[in-house]
C-alpha cells in the first residue's frame, strides 16, 4: 500500500489527528501581542536588517527599509520594546535616520509584520555575538574596507566578501582615541556603526572601532547618558494592579540599572523604607499627571523585568491597569 492511501486510512479511522486540528494547535501556540502585557512572541517573529527611514516619537511609530528586499515596513514600538543602542540600553530617540539595525517584528491582527519589540544596533549585535569585521583588503583611495564577518578566530564565519565604506564623516577610534583609516591593517578585527544609502545592502560607517577598548569606551559613555536620562524621565513599566493605596507595576528592561537599586529581599535588605515618585503617562510615555510619593513594599526580578509593589497615601485614581507609569528613584 502506498503512503498516501495509508495516511488517508489512518486519518479516517482517527489514528492520526486531522490537518485542521494540527493547524489549529499550531496557531494556538503563537502568543499574541496584548496591550498592557509584556509578551514577545518569539515563536513567530522576524529579525530584519534594515535602514531606519522615519520615526514619530509622539506616536512611537516609524518605517524602515528592509535591506534584503528593498521593501518598506511600517512599525509601532511596544512600550516595553528594547532599544539596544551604542551596545547597551537606549531609547527610540537615539536611533538616527538612515541607521542600520535589526528590527524585530511580530504580526498584528491583520497578519502584517507590524509590532516592534526591539531595535538592535550594529554595535550591540557584534558585541553580543562576539563577532568582528576582519579586514581582508584595504582601498585607501576610495576609503573601502573588504572584510569577513566572523568570530575572532574564524571558528564561525557569518559572511565573506563584504565591504565597509568610509567617507569624510567617518570617525575612527583606536585605544579609545581618534585614529585614521591609515591605522587599519590587514587582519584587524573591526566593529562599526553604519548607515545605508537608501538601496541595497551598503554599509557606510559613521564610526569604526579598531579594537574592543574603543567600543567599550563608546558604550560606557552611553551607559552614563542613559542612566541620567532614566533618573530624569523615570523608569517605565506597566501598571498591573491598582487597589486602594497599593500599586503594582512591571518595570521594563529599559530602566534596569536603576531598578536594581530598588530590589528587596534578604540579600538586598534596606536599613530604611525606600520612597519613590510615580506618575501615569500618555501614549507618548510622557507623564500625564503630577507624580505622587510612594513607599517600596517589594521589588523582585521577573526575568529581565522588575515586579514593583508600592504603597501610597495619595490618590491613585489616575493610574489605569495596562497603562504605562513612570517611577523616579529618590536620591
Summarize the SSE layout with pairings.
Elements: H1 3-12, H2 19-28, E1 46-56, E2 61-66, E3 71-85, E4 88-89, E5 100-107, E6 113-121, H3 122-129, E7 131-139, E8 144-151, E9 157-165, E10 171-174, E11 177-179, E12 189-195, E13 204-209, H4 212-233, E14 235-243, E15 246-251, H5 256-259, E16 275-280, E17 292-302, E18 305-311, E19 324-329
Parallel strand pairs: 3-6, 10-13
Antiparallel strand pairs: 1-2, 1-5, 2-3, 3-4, 5-6, 7-8, 7-12, 8-9, 10-11, 12-13, 14-15, 14-19, 15-18, 16-17, 16-19, 17-18
What are the salient characteristics of this protein?
331 residues; alpha+beta; OB fold (Dihydrolipoamide Acetyltransferase, E2P); Thrombin, subunit H; 7-stranded mixed sheet; 6-stranded antiparallel beta barrel; 19 strands; 16% helix
Helix proportion: 10-25%
Q: Taking all residues together, what is the mean pLDDT?
A: 92
CATH fold-level label of the largest domain: OB fold (Dihydrolipoamide Acetyltransferase, E2P)
The CATH superfamily label of the largest domain reads: Copper binding periplasmic protein CusF
For this entry, what is the oligomeric state of its chains? Answer: single chain
What would you call the structural class? alpha+beta
The number of distinct β-strands equals 19
The CATH first-level class of the largest domain comes to: Mainly Beta
What would you say about this model in short?
Keywords: Signal. Helices cover 16% and strands 43% of the residues. It is α+β, with helices and mostly antiparallel strands.
